[in-house]
Amino acid sequence: MKPQTTPGEKIRVALLRDRKARGEKIVMVTAYDYPTGRLVDEAGADVILVGDSLGNAVLGFDTTIPVTLDDMIHHTAAVRRGAKRALLVGDMPFMTYKVTPEEGLRNAARLVQEGNAEAVKLEGGREVSATSRRIVEAGIPVMGHIGLTPQSVHAQSGYRVQGRGRDEARRVRDDAKALEEAGCFAVVLECLPWDLAREVTEGLTVPTIGIGSGAECDGQVLVLCDLIGLSFGEPARYVKQYGQVGEMIRQAVTAFRDEVRNGAYPDRGHAYKGRSTGE
Questions:
Q1: Which of 71, 104, 179, 225 gives the lowest tally of CB atoms within 10 Å of its CB?
Q2: Mean pLDDT of the region 143-148
Q3: Is the pLDDT of residue 154 over 70?
Q4: Mean pLDDT of all residues in the chain?
Q5: Is 190 annotated in the active site?
């Protein structure tokens, strides 16, 4: 099969629908600043999500709820300076889009204009479909997000699998269709039963991006800190850690500490050359 994109080619929204049609998987990874944005981009991710998961992963909060729009703008702009090829999606944080469609549009516009996002992501299904449509009509691409929606952690009684049972599954399917009809270019499916995620994926013309929802979604996303082993506590069951960067940092700082204390650093090899010009 002929590759859809060539190395270095800019990823656009339209290419993701082509990926689904071709059966080519989409890779999405979170990033939160210039170095992680640049590294994820250079590694070949198709989509970089500046997630409000920065609340948990970077800012030390227990949930994503305290994250503000100014936080998201700040971090999205930093990632933009490092990411050139991947499609850059910025999360709309808690209560920045659920009051009225017009307020949602104003806040999405800030994330694009000030944060340099190329698309925005909204959590929710039918209840945010009017806002999603309004933002899309204004020329801003929207990614949907259903299933487990972390901004609704209290209403959903914690972080648990969604879509179990006939009524919940019907609601998930209806939400997915409502987002597609509102113009969303992709939909994140978080923590859904694998068979339901497959059914939703097959029923949509736009791609699905899974997280904890099985292998038959059109793509997958992981939080970078989980992926590289830079998170604390027990990872979610669906997380696969591809590195242990946290332990590498701990070892490097410990070695630096020891060398400073015993006088081994800095040595002459790490000193500036030449003599002082002072009298």
A1: 71
A2: 96
A3: no
A4: 93
A5: yes
Catalytic pick among 24, 118, 180, 190: 190
- In 3D space, the residue among 201, 237, 238, 236 whose CA is nearest the CA of residue 216 turns out to be 201
The pLDDT score that the predictor gives to residue 1 is 43
Q: Report yes or no on 187 lying in a domain.
A: yes
**Residue 121 in this model has a pLDDT that exceeds 80:** yes
Q: Where are the alpha helices (DSSP H) in the chain?
A: 13-22, 34-42, 54-57, 69-82, 101-113, 129-137, 166-182, 194-203, 224-227, 245-262
- The three-class DSSP label of residue 177 is helix
Residue 87 has pLDDT above 60, yes or no: yes
Cα separation of 236 and 212, whole Å?
9
**What kind and span of H or E run contains 144?**
strand 142-147
Q: Are strands 26-30 and 119-121 parallel, antiparallel or unpaired?
A: unpaired
The mean per-residue pLDDT over the stretch 151-165 comes to 72
| 64 CB-near residues (< 8 Å, 6+ apart) | 52, 53, 55, 56, 93, 94, 150, 151, 153
Alpha carbon distance, N-terminus to C-terminus of the chain? 72
Domain of residue 213: give its range. 13-227
The domain spanning residue 115 has which CATH number?
Answer: 3.20.20.60
Structure tokens that stand for 30 in this block: 């979170």
Q: How many domains is the chain partitioned into structurally?
A: 1
Domain assignment present for 270? no
Residue 239 lies in a domain: no
Pull the structure tokens for residue 58. Answer: 């970077």
Is residue 1 domain-resident?
no
